[in-house]
Write a structure and sequence with these properties.
17% strand; six-stranded mixed beta sheet
């Protein structure tokens, strides 16, 4: 009975806010503290989220040949995981051995598109160009021919011959540009 009296008196005290000096239950002081803490954090660490969530900057290629070879091997493994067959008739379960495939990063600058494709090593380059154009949805209505160019636009690149096999002209993991002939 005495316990009920104490509980009732506690309830009565909280009903009349002027009779006591406890912190209101509304939570406004904690909200103010959170806002102050966030303001302090943003002042001390101005762009912590935006710099880490942004695009990663390109690292310069290592000058050590051993490190460069390891980096190329890692990039090739990543390409193999992302690569899709350029030839729709060769599905994922086609039975072609890994040693008989060549993986390429095909870039078409006019549409700003890029895909990682794999081909059979013994495919003729002209057919590989046609398959890449189909995979990248390049329109061939103007009747101009297309070709692969190995290398970047800045250094000119090396034109691949359409009548020679693809595996004889490039290495696994190379980047080629799909270019319309003039």
């Amino acid at each position: 009975m005495f316990l009920l009296f104490l509980l009732d008196s506690e309830k009565r005290r909280h009903r009349h806010a002027g009779a006591h000096e406890c912190v209101p239950v509304s939570g406004s002081p904690t909200a103010d503290k959170k806002a102050e803490a966030r303001a302090l954090l943003s002042k001390l660490f101005p762009d912590a989220k935006s710099s880490s969530a942004g695009t990663s900057r390109a690292r310069p290629a290592p000058s050590d040949p051993a490190k460069r070879a390891k980096l190329r091997a890692i990039e090739l493994m990543k390409m193999k995981h992302k690569a899709i067959s350029a030839d729709p008739s060769l599905a994922k379960g086609s039975g072609i051995q890994a040693g008989d495939k060549i993986h390429l990063r095909v870039v078409y600058a006019a549409l700003a598109s890029e895909k990682v494709l794999w081909y059979r090593k013994d495919i003729v380059t002209g057919k590989a160009v046609d398959l890449a154009a189909r995979a990248l949805s390049v329109s061939r209505e103007d009747g101009r021919g297309m070709r692969f160019v190995r290398g970047h636009e800045t250094d000119g690149g090396l034109d691949l011959q359409n009548d020679i096999t693809l595996g004889a002209q490039i290495e696994d993991g190379d980047e080629v540009r799909l270019v319309k002939e003039d």
